[in-house]
Write a structure and sequence with these properties.
Layout (H helix, E strand, L loop, with lengths): L13 H6 L26 E5 L4 H12 L7 E4 L23 E2 L4 E2 L16 H6 L10 E4 L4 E4 L2 H10 L1 H4 L13 H27 L3 H22 L13 H20 L11 H11 L10 H9 L29
Parallel strand pairs: 1-2
Antiparallel strand pairs: 1-5, 3-4, 5-6
Protein name: Glutathionyl-hydroquinone reductase YqjG
Keywords: Oxidoreductase
EC number: 1.8.-.-
Length: 337
């Protein structure tokens, strides 16, 4: 287990904390690395299993798109709602079922796929783990098609590995470097990553899924304090969080803010403000949305279906519609004034 609190949550007294109503994120168990003798960096060798509603998966799909790895790293997409109580294997499992109908659209979602990575046509992500004797069931999964093994299932590490080996893996020639070699920039990224993970990425879940009022209020306050901090940071005219260059800090912030106005504001009880109410953060969000295939790396339909489709009645809200529909609004930085 890593001690990096920008990657995973402290597991101290996890049973007691969960018992009193705190949402505590678990730890990913597969932590191998591309670029080792066991898992050499080769184009066409690796595969991703993801769900487009999941913000941790969104990190990975962003890296794949931004680095130009779409042709060399194949990918399967799970349905955004997990299995129900009527599933023969059990509830709350990610499944690769492209014919499943979404309540939001009344039709299957075209991005969803069967399992093409393992060669076994597995239906459930859980079955991929079971082949390695693990009881985990989370996404994303970085998978080695040659050895038939899971390489890694921690999104932060997958992003870092794809960036470090993008050239050898078959990335585009004009790709950015997400984690620059400059040590001072790395230190700035590390500080941002820590605050963003604790208060924004994981903080949204702590607010939305904790059942204790005091824990919710603490997470709510920290979330909006960080939004204000980031808005102030961007107010000096910089294009991205560390300056003029898109980095890993921007990539890790984007999935949560992409979801905030249309989903988290209501679903995670984070109704203190919209991102649209923060002038500089909104413009940053629009800028990132327009950057290097970012828009194609996610799906608002999957997000809305995934979060609201698993609520108590499964009904997906149709809004917000003002000032315009999302994600179309992200093409309009001028909306924030």
């Amino acid at each position: 287990m890593s001690n990096d609190i920008s990657t995973e949550e402290n597991q101290t007294e996890i049973d007691r904390r969960r018992a009193r109503g705190e949402f505590v994120r678990g730890v990913s168990g597969f932590r191998h690395a591309i670029g080792t003798p066991e898992f050499p960096a080769e184009p066409g060798r690796y595969h991703l299993f993801v769900a487009l509603n999941c913000p941790w998966c969104h990190r990975v799909t962003l890296a794949r798109s931004i680095l130009g790895l779409g042709d060399s790293i194949s990918m399967d997409v799970a349905f955004p709602n997990r299995t129900g109580d009527d599933d023969p294997v059990g509830p709350n499992l990610w499944e690769f079922t492209p014919d499943r109908v979404a309540s939001l659209t009344g039709a299957p979602l075209p991005e969803c796929t069967v399992d093409t990575g393992t060669g076994a046509g597995l239906r459930l992500a859980k079955e991929i783990y079971q082949r390695e004797g693990s009881d985990e069931q989370s996404l994303p999964i970085l998978y080695d098609k040659i050895t038939g093994r899971i390489v890694n299932n921690e999104s932060a590490e997958i992003v870092r590995q794809l960036d470090a080996h993008a050239g050898t893996l078959g990335g585009s020639d004009d790709r950015p470097t997400i984690f620059p070699k400059n040590q001072k920039v790395q230190e700035v990224i590390a500080a941002l990553n820590e605050r963003i993970f604790v208060t924004i990425n994981n903080g949204a879940y702590k607010a939305g899924f904790s059942s204790d009022q005091a824990i919710y209020e603490q997470a709510f306050t920290a979330y909006f304090e960080t939004l204000t901090y980031l808005d102030d940071l961007l107010s000096d005219g910089r294009s991205f969080l560390t300056g003029d260059t898109f980095t890993e800090a921007d990539l890790r912030l984007f999935p949560t803010l992409f979801r905030h106005d249309p989903v988290y504001y209501l679903r995670m009880k984070l109704n203190g403000a919209r991102i649209l109410d923060y002038v500089y953060l909104w413009r940053w969000l629009c800028r990132v949305y327009a950057f290097n295939s970012v828009a194609s790396a996610g799906s608002m339909t999957h997000c809305r279906q995934g979060y609201f489709g698993r609520s108590w009645n499964g009904v997906v809200p149709l809004g917000p519609n003002f000032p315009m529909r999302y994600p179309d609004a992200y093409q309009h930085p001028e909306l924030a004034v």
